[in-house]
Write a structure and sequence with these properties.
- With 197 residues, the protein is mostly helical.
- It has two domains: 93 residues, Rna Polymerase Sigma Factor, Chain: A (Orthogonal Bundle); 102 residues, Winged helix-like DNA-binding domain superfamily/Winged helix DNA-binding domain (Arc Repressor Mutant, subunit A, Orthogonal Bundle).
- It is built from ten helices and no strands.
- It is elongated and about 60 Å long.
- The N and C termini lie far apart (56 Å).
């Protein structure tokens, strides 16, 4: 196994494509924590995260086995993109767009002992601002919303976002810029105040 650990992702993919299951076990072990954390952070549901995680690697296995893997040098980004697309597919099947966010998040904020010095009124204001922001995010075009969510909710770099979504960094930056401009315009049009002061 030590020999496998020293290999690059691409070397392992080639070995696995040739029938070496240990090579894929090494790939899975190498990337499972990052991929699962990304999925779980997005869906905020352990059972759903498990299902999408399994589907992600099943799709990876199938693609490699059928000789259709062409992402030379970008295995991690490729797997993350599979996970990303599976999550998008799942959420598209849902009728309510806000299922992308955890509705209990605001409750967690209000019950956070670190915020006990604040007044109850300030808790309500913070919760309302967060709710308003989430509503605005839901109204963004899909591509702008996904970049904003990845950047601010998942703390991914623009390089990681570009790799996962399969676009250039400039495109990712442009989508973020338009997302923020659109949110500001929507907030202004709807007379929303998105500051805590």
């Amino acid at each position: 196994m030590d020999n496998y650990s020293a290999m690059t992702d691409e070397q392992l993919v080639v070995l696995y494509a040739d029938g070496n299951d240990t090579a894929f076990d090494t790939l899975l072990e190498r990337h499972k924590q990052t991929v699962y954390a990304y999925i779980n952070y997005t869906v905020r549901d352990a059972d759903l995260a498990d299902d999408i995680f399994q589907d992600t690697f099943i799709k990876a296995i199938t693609t490699i086995r059928h000789g259709k893997y062409t992402e030379t040098g970008k295995f991690k980004a490729w797997v993350m993109r599979i996970a990303h697309n599976l999550m998008i597919d799942f959420f598209r099947q849902k009728k309510h767009e806000n299922t992308i966010f955890n509705d209990s998040y605001e409750v967690d904020l209000l019950n956070n002992v670190n915020l006990c010095d604040d007044t109850f009124e300030s808790h309500l204001v913070k919760a309302q601002v967060l709710q308003d922001v989430k509503k605005l995010v839901c109204y963004l075009p899909d591509k702008q919303r996904e970049v904003l969510v990845m950047r601010y909710y998942k703390d991914l770099s623009f390089q990681e976002i570009a790799d996962i979504t399969g676009v250039s960094i400039n495109t990712a930056l442009g989508r973020m810029r338009y997302a923020i401009l659109n949110m500001r315009k929507m907030a202004s049009d709807n007379k929303m105040i998105l500051t805590l002061n």
